[in-house]
Automatic annotation (TrEMBL):
The keyword Magnesium does not apply. It comes from the Bacteria. Keywords: ATP-binding, Cell membrane, Membrane, Nucleotide-binding, Transport. One of its GO terms (cellular component) is membrane. Belongs to the ABC transporter superfamily. The keyword Acyltransferase does not apply. Residues 50-272 form the ABC transporter domain. This is ATP-binding cassette domain-containing protein.
Length: 430
């Protein structure tokens, strides 16, 4: 392995055996029984990713499913690599293999240096131990002495913003508190390689920005970071290289801007104007069930005429009564530029503080004509409170088209403009 290479993956594949695993809940057992009684496929036997998306049948061979398929790449010291790909592309599985949480079925990975990882909430900490005890435990796992960890301890606690809870068992932490401490531990114990999954989407928005800043500092110190995210703006801002995964295979490694462009092309080729969750979520969870683009007539449409209003519909499950909940919508150009943001309940609106009963909800927002310019867009929808993000879906694309050609004046057209707003004008004789 070249002296500058700190991660070298050779022909990595990860297979899982298909079949129905014990569900562990009466709800799942009844769901399977009902499907069999009606002569329908068992939803609990389908291969789906963490957000409920059905996996490609091309990745199923016999009774085996390929989460990763013959992935090879190298990472040099000091590289900050953004790993991008559609939901279920294999990004999280790859980080688990690199961090040695799971072993590859075939192939091998060679690492040079200590590895710290921040993957899904629940990994890395012992729930019965306090925050303080888990900090020292993680340091010991990384091969650090107690004195070395103690020298970093105050920085870790200050960055995580949980000083008064540091001696509380982490099983009593909220998901946001857990992530803050987990990231702070991983980022301050001086690993040579830092692996960060999209777990940062859970938690305070300001803390996410703080984490991105800390990762940039780590990169400037010559350490190596692998960063999984759907936020292409963050990837562009942070990373000097990108790795594109699709259906468990590595498409290529290259300059960030090139990888983002290729990712957007892949994304647009595989998306539609409607997303429907493939499996029922946990009954007590908060989850997006459906996301759709509808034209002025209320029909699902992948093309929207510039001169017509259109609608975004979001069906979601609120598994437990909750206050302060909001549906957030981002409209993103195909080059990753965020063009519009809207919340169903503004942060300081009184109605957002009201307790909302558990149940299924439908949110619908009207986007007026001529707000967006012509072009191809994708939607990102999240359900959040002021401090936590519960679910994110980014599986719908649409195109705004101008079949009328409403602006052709002095050679001007709309293509060079980000927005195409029809503004109110007053014209009168002077």
């Amino acid at each position: 392995m070249n002296s500058d290479v700190v991660i070298h993956a050779e022909n990595i594949s990860k297979q899982y055996r298909l079949g129905v695993i014990n569900h562990g809940t009466l709800y799942r057992d009844l769901q399977s029984w009902w499907a069999r009684w009606r002569g329908q496929p068992d939803p609990n036997a389908e291969v789906v990713d963490a957000r409920g998306h059905r996996e490609s049948k091309a990745r199923i061979v016999g009774d085996r499913f390929y989460a990763l398929d013959d992935v090879s790449f190298s990472v040099n010291q000091g590289d900050i690599i953004g790993i991008v790909g559609r939901n279920g592309a294999g990004k999280s599985t790859l980080l688990k293999v690199i961090s040695r949480i799971t072993a590859p079925t075939t192939g091998r990975i060679r690492l040079k240096g200590r590895v710290a990882s921040l993957l899904e909430v629940g990994t890395g900490f012992h729930p019965e131990l306090t925050g303080r005890e888990n900090v020292y435990l993680n340091g010991a796992i990384l091969g650090m002495s107690r004195r070395e960890v103690s020298s970093k301890f105050e920085q870790i606690v200050e960055f995580a913003e949980i000083g008064e809870f540091i001696d509380t068992p982490v099983k009593r932490y909220s998901s946001g508190m857990y992530v803050r401490l987990a990231f702070s531990v991983a980022a301050h114990l001086d690993p040579e390689i830092l692996l960060v999954d999209e777990v940062l989407a859970v938690g305070d928005i300001n803390f996410q920005k703080k984490c991105l800043g800390r990762m940039q500092e780590i990169g400037k110190d010559g350490r190596t970071i692998l960063f999984v995210s759907h936020n292409v703006s963050a990837v562009k801002q942070m990373c000097n290289k990108g790795l594109l995964l699709n259906d468990g295979r590595s498409i290529r490694v290259g300059p960030t801007s090139d990888i983002i462009s290729e990712y957007v092309d892949h994304f647009n080729d595989h998306q539609a104007a409607e997303y429907v969750r493939a499996t029922e979520p946990n009954p007590s969870s908060v989850a997006v069930l459906r996301l759709a683009i509808c034209n002025a007539k209320g029909a699902i449409a992948s093309q929207i005429e510039l001169t017509e209003d259109f609608f975004v519909e979001v069906d979601y499950l609120l598994g437990t009564p909750m206050s302060g909940l909001s549906v957030g919508l981002q409209v993103i150009l195909d080059d990753g530029l965020l063009t519009m943001l809207s919340l169903s309940d503004p942060e300081f609106a009184p109605e957002r503080l009201n307790m909302r009963p558990a149940g299924r909800y439908k949110a619908r927002v009207k986007i007026p004509r001529q707000i967006l310019n012509t072009g191809r867009y994708r939607l990102r929808v999240g359900i959040s409170s002021r401090f936590s993000v519960y679910d994110i879906v980014e599986n719908v694309t649409f195109e705004v088209v101008d079949n009328v050609g409403i602006v052709q004046f002095m050679g001007w057209d709309r293509k060079g403009s980000l927005l195409g707003v029809q503004l109110p004008w007053d014209v009168e004789r002077a």
